[in-house]
């Protein structure tokens, strides 16, 4: 690792585990956070190389006349077709990986965070120096998402959970685990990891 570069730390966790909440605490400590999911959406509309690959693979209809992403069409294309899901991921993830590398080089802090719902599943964990998993009991996650996203049903949330790597597996693969259950305080856990990462960097 280049000593002048910030340590790259990935933070993940299943739907509703509390990744974004934990990232807000790191952000308050002055740590820059790269949101892979938000940035992927942005790149699909603003990265011309990626756009042309998506058009090539999914047709001109993938974009509207005004140049915006035709989310409805793409969602229909990938719906229940695992090969097409793989295809779109194989186009988007490398673009996000490159964008993250460029972003990380410009940061001036000892370490930076990359937040992604699918960090292990996409292989992007290998791009990172350390990994944090935010872990919450399934029941708590479902209840929190139902409160946060009233448009989602319990069945929809469970189907997303089924598509993600099990929490136990992610805990095994991670260097640090933040437990976000109802009886656990988040801030002391974040402070402890923050200190360890500063020491490492
Ligand atoms: P997603 O993968 O869906 O983006 P996430 O892992 O980023 O989810 P958050 O959005 O941070 O999860 O948390 C899910 C919901 O649970 C939010 O409404 C958040 O405010 C709430 N929440 C998270 N942690 C706690 C906590 N410790 N106590 C109470 N509410 C919490």
TrEMBL record:
Superkingdom of the source species: Bacteria
Positions annotated to bind ATP: 16-21
Enzyme Commission designation: 2.7.1.24
KW Kinase (keyword) present: yes
Subcellular location: Cytoplasm
Keyword rRNA-binding: no
Pathway note: Cofactor biosynthesis; coenzyme A biosynthesis; CoA from (R)-pantothenate: step 5/5
Any single Pfam family the record assigns to this protein: CoaE
EC category name: transferase
MF terms in GO: kinase activity
Catalytic reaction(s) noted: 3'-dephospho-CoA + ATP = ADP + CoA + H(+)
Keywords, in A-Z order: ATP-binding, Coenzyme A biosynthesis, Cytoplasm, Kinase, Nucleotide-binding, Transferase
HAMAP family named among the record's database cross-references: Dephospho_CoA_kinase
Function statement: Catalyzes the phosphorylation of the 3'-hydroxyl group of dephosphocoenzyme A to form coenzyme A.
Entry similarity comment: Belongs to the CoaE family.
Protein's recorded name: Dephospho-CoA kinase
Species of origin: Algoriphagus taiwanensis
């Amino acid at each position: 690792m280049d000593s002048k570069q910030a340590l790259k730390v990935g933070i993940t966790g299943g739907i509703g585990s509390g990744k974004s909440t934990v990232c807000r605490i790191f952000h308050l400590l002055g740590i820059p956070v790269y949101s892979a999911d938000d940035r992927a959406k942005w790149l699909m509309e603003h990265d011309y190389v990626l756009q042309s690959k998506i058009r090539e693979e999914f047709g001109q209809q993938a974009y509207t006349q005004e140049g915006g992403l035709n989310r409805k069409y793409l969602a229909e294309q990938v719906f229940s077709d695992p090969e097409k899901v793989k295809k779109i991921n194989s186009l988007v993830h490398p673009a996000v990986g490159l964008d993250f590398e460029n972003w990380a080089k410009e940061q001036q802090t000892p370490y930076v965070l990359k937040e992604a719902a699918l960090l292990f599943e996409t292989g992007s964990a290998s791009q990172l120096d350390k990994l944090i998993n935010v872990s919450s009991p399934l029941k708590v996650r479902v209840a929190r998402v139902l409160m946060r996203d009233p448009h989602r049903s319990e069945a929809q949330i469970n189907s997303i959970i089924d598509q993600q790597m099990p929490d136990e597996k992610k805990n095994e693969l991670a260097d640090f685990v933040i437990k976000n259950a109802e009886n656990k305080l988040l801030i002391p856990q974040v402070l402890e990891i923050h200190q360890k990462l500063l020491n490492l960097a």
